[in-house]
Design a protein that fits this description.
Residues 278-303 are annotated as: Disordered. With 303 residues, this protein is mainly α. The chain has helices spanning 10-21, 27-58, 81-85, 116-120, 152-174, 183-213, 215-224, 250-258, 270-288, and strands at residues 90-94, 101-107, 124-129, 228-231, 236-239, 245-246. It has nine helices and six strands, in the order H-H-H-E-E-H-E-H-H-H-E-E-E-H-H. Strand 5 and strand 6 form a beta hairpin. It is rod-shaped.
């Protein structure tokens, strides 16, 4: 900084040493001469600083001479206010995670502090990779302490974005009914159709088996089933559908007669009943077909 700028004062220090070695001078005289030497040094320093200020002031005239001046600094705060006012383009380099690249934010004017809000107002943003072919031309530091390191939370976010989300989308599309995998549902559908076709056949077979096996049982139950109840004032008896008497007490017979809804229906098939009736009708027709010859009576004669 200009306020800390110093010039060579070895000549002024030599004059002070000579004054201190002069025994002919009193202490007051020595102090006065030393103060005078320091004032001379201060005047020379002010003149030198003013010359430097004139260089900075002359920067404002660079466009008149056709020059473009580039100033590089680690902090714009170290530049004079009138220099910052003349800046036409401010490029701010921001390096994150100690990577071998930086983001360049371009502004149309100088900013002493570049915060996030200021970076959002940049007119242009570009990524600049450090030129590796120039690394060997200079030595920045004796020891490189800037090792690349990405925070763990950003690594997790990158894994979710580039692996987790694509995997989820691929899985969703795989099982999607419109765009997903079609072979597996077709196989399931075919197997279901086979099971459905087999199931009714098995059921029909199972339905026929008990009917065939229980045919004789139904006949036996039919012989024991009460189909007719005959009740009088003195007696009550029951018969089956074949007209055979069924052994039952008089009290039970009268109860069934009063509540005949407790009587069960026949379990014999209607087809068997029709077949029996057809056989009976055929027998009747056979009886009707017995040969019969109408007798012939003699005709009337006149005497």
């Amino acid at each position: 900084l200009l306020k800390n700028y110093q010039i060579d004062r070895s000549d002024y220090d030599l004059d002070i040493d000579i004054v201190n070695l002069d025994d002919s001078l009193t202490a007051t005289q020595k102090k006065q001469r030393i103060d005078e030497i320091n004032r001379k040094y201060k005047t020379a320093l002010d003149i030198k600083k003013e010359q430097i200020r004139e260089i900075g002031t002359a920067l404002s005239m660079h466009r008149h001479f056709g020059f473009d001046i580039f100033l590089i600094t680690q902090s714009p705060k170290k530049l004079a206010a009138h220099i910052l006012a003349d800046v036409g383009t401010h490029l701010h380099l921001r390096r994150v995670f100690k990577m071998k690249r930086a983001t360049i934010y371009e502004f149309p004017e100088a900013h002493t502090t570049v915060s996030k809000a200021v970076r959002d107002d940049a007119i242009n943003k570009t990524i600049w990779k450090f030129p590796k072919h120039l690394y060997g031309t200079y030595t920045s530091t004796e020891v490189d302490t800037h090792k690349q390191k990405i925070p763990l939370k950003y690594i997790i976010i990158l894994v979710l974005v580039f692996i987790g989300i694509p995997s989820y989308v691929a899985r969703s599309l795989w099982y999607d009914p419109l765009f997903g995998h079609k072979e597996k549902p077709v196989m399931v559908q075919k197997s279901q159709e086979i099971e459905e076709t087999k199931q009714p056949q098995t059921t029909i077979q199972e339905m026929h088996k008990p009917i065939l096996n229980n045919k004789n049982d139904d006949l036996q139950l039919e012989n024991q089933r009460i189909a007719i109840i005959v009740e009088s004032s003195t007696d009550c008896y029951a018969k089956n559908s074949y007209g055979d008497f069924i052994d039952i007490s008089v009290d039970e017979c009268k109860k069934l007669s009063s509540k005949n809804n407790r009587m069960s229906f026949s379990k014999l098939k209607k087809e068997q009943y029709l077949q029996d009736n057809m056989s009976v009708n055929n027998n009747d027709n056979d009886n009707d077909n017995v040969g019969y010859t109408q007798p012939v009576y003699p005709s009337e004669t006149t005497l």
